[in-house]
Structure formats: C-alpha cells, structure tokens
Design brief:
Strand content: 15-25%
Number of strands: 12
Order of helices and strands: EHEHEEEHHHHEHEHEEHHEHHEE
CATH topology of the largest domain: DNA polymerase, domain 1
Distance between the termini: 24 Å
CATH class of the largest domain: Mainly Alpha
Radius of gyration: 24 Å
CATH superfamily of the largest domain: Obg-related GTPase Ych/YyaF, coiled-coil domain
Number of domains: 2
Shape: flat
Largest sheet: 6 strands, mixed
Helix content: 25-40%
Length: about 350
C-alpha cells in the first residue's frame, strides 16, 4: 500500500519549507500569504538502512524503498470556507490521504509576517480545525440530502446510513473532530465513501524550538488525541522522524524481499496476515498462497555478512556457486515456515511459496 499525507496550516507557518525539506523539490516559497496556489505533490523515499544491508548481501541490481506521497496545499485562513484566501478550494486535493500533518508556527521571528499579526499556536490550531470541520460539513450535508430521499424507500441500509451521517453532522456542528469515531463507524462504507478530513489521523508539526512550545499547547494537542513533533524548519534537520511517526500512528510496518534483481520494502498494516502481505507483492500470491519462508532481516545479515565471499553472489533467490546464506540460515533454524494465520512483522524478510 502507498502512504499519502496532506500538509495543512496557516500561511507562512513553514508548510512549503517542510515540503521542500521532505522532497528536495523547488516549490514557490515567499514571505507573503497564498504563495502556493496549486497543490504540490512530492514522492519521498522512506529511509530504511535495512535495505542497503540486504542489497549488499544479495548484490541486488536495484533498491526499491517504501514511499510516502506528500500533498502541500495553499495556506488556510479564518473564513476560508466562505472564500477567504485560497486554501479551502484545495482541501479536496487531500481528501484521499491517509493522514494530515498540520504545521503550526511557534517561532517568533518578527520579519516573517503572520496573517493574524500575532503568533498564537493554539488559535491557529483552532482556526485550521474549524476550516476542516466546515469542509466536512459541506460533504456531510450534500450526502445527507441524498440519503433522506433514499431512506424513504424503506431500504434498511440507507436508513442506517442516514442515522450515521446525522450523528456525524451533529458532532461537526458541535465543533468536534471525527477522529474519536468508533472503528466500526469509521470503517462503514458510508463514512469511507465521504473521505472526511477530520476523521483522519493528525500529526501536529510544531515549527520552532523546544522553548517556543508551551505546556498549554502540548496539553491542547493531547486533548485532541493527537501526536506532535517539534522541529525547527529553518534549519536543515532530518525529516525521518516525521515519516516514522506517521507510520506509527497509522499502524503501518514494512516487510522486505531481497534477491539479485532487487531488494524492496513493502508497506502493510500491522497485523496483516501472510496471504494479505503476499498479495501486496502480487495479487496471485494471495489467491494461490501456500506458505511463507520468513527470517528477521538482522538474522539474515548476521548469517551472511556482505564481506563474505558467498554473500557477494547469494541471497534467497541468488545463484551463487558457493555456500548459500539462505540455506545456512535454514541450517541454523533461523528461517521459519509460516502459514495463512501468521501475522507478518516489521523487518521480516519473506519468500512466498504459492501454487
């Protein structure tokens, strides 16, 4: 599966700077509101040192990391839902993302203007969340209007859907985000179809230093049931933690495959069973699944260090004439055979056996 993340925030809070740091793409960064008037989309490789080590022992021709798509849209301002600024018209571009990063300005530099004239992170969070809520209300009201007619036919599912959507509308009208919806409701077809913004997991990226972030702000984010990350986007620093945090809150992991052709990371939901994991490689692998051969990546590296003569030409799918490290791992009992009920773990190196 592919992970996609939308970047939202007020103008001049560091959204485009974050996007540039993430993707190394040149985007239009300017010291005035609404510099970004088109959604920027960047594909970022997920840092994973395991791939290099596995590729070394397999002498892989290429490395294919997991990727994250980042969508950067124009800055949102108070009243965006009524046409103020440019951000609201682009919110539809992030309806299909799995998570949202809300960039919040905490730094106090006076030479960088703030649309509200004063830096106030809590106010900005409330402004952005209000605009997301109002955008969702537009979606919900349109869907409810259609459901009211459909429910009159007596269709039991449509009646149930109408009740769900009415409940959601009530929560939004109270100013509540929808991240607290039960998993049953979130996973219902009607809710999935609407792709509601406030039902998506959020990470608050606090742009500034630790001393810029008050306990009141931390408690505010905690009350929203969300996660945060403090980063000074004016400095060159690693964005790996943001990607790692996104994986954690979405319950994602990566399993690995390695051979002479390629070493690759595959993204799946934590708890995925072996056939479903195999299906991310090829749909036939899920339908015709027999078993997996599995070893943790570090065990494979340990038994077959890249400096050994055999390692240079071996791997699970290698054709080396010398001792095969995959077979050596089997002899040590480090390779397991797992069936359909096995939950694939982060860092598993697998070979799929299928009919």
């Amino acid at each position: 599966m592919k992970l996609s993340i939308g970047i939202v925030g007020m103008p001049n809070v560091g959204k485009s700077t974050l996007f540039k740091a993430l993707t190394a793409n040149e985007v239009h960064i300017a010291n005035y509101p609404f510099a970004t008037i088109d959604p920027n989309v960047g594909v970022v490789s997920v840092p994973d040192e395991r791939l290099d080590k596995l590729a070394s022992i397999s002498r892989s021709k290429k490395i294919v990391p997991a990727v994250v798509e980042f969508y950067d849209i124009a800055g949102l301002v108070k009243g965006a839902n009524k046409g103020e600024g440019l951000g609201n018209q682009f919110l539809s571009h992030i309806k299909d993302v799995e998570a949202i990063v809300q960039v919040v300005r905490c730094f106090q530099k006076s030479d960088i203007i703030h649309v509200e004239e004063r830096v106030d992170p809590i106010r900005d969070i409330e402004t952005i969340n209000t605009e997301l809520i109002l955008k969702d209300l537009e979606t919900v009201e349109r869907r409810l209007e259609k459901l009211e007619g459909e429910a009159r036919t007596g269709d039991k599912q449509k009646i149930k859907d109408k009740e769900i959507v009415e409940n959601i509308k009530d929560k939004l009208n109270k100013g509540e985000l929808l991240t607290g919806l039960s998993e049953e409701i979130k996973n219902s077809l009607i809710v999935k179809e609407m792709n509601l913004l406030t039902a998506k997991k959020q990470i608050y990226l606090l742009n500034g230093n630790e001393e810029d972030v008050s306990n009141e702000l931390k408690n505010k984010i905690k009350s929203l049931g969300a996660d945060y990350l403090i980063a000074d986007l004016s400095k060159e620093n690693s964005v790996n933690e943001l990607i790692k945090r996104a994986y954690e809150i979405l319950g994602l992991i990566s399993f690995l495959t390695t051979g002479e052709d390629e070493t690759r990371a595959w993204t799946i939901k934590k708890g995925s069973k072996a056939p479903q994991a195999a299906g991310t490689i090829h749909t036939d692998f899920e339908n015709k699944f027999i078993r997996l051969e599995v070893i943790l990546w570090d065990k494979l590296v340990a038994v077959c260090p890249s400096t050994s003569p055999s390692a240079a030409s071996s791997g699970p799918n290698g054709s080396g004439q010398q001792q095969n490290c995959w077979n050596e791992a089997k002899q040590k009992g480090w390779i397991r055979t797992e069936g359909k009920e096995y939950e694939v773990k982060d860092g598993d190196v697998i070979v799929v056996r299928h009919s």
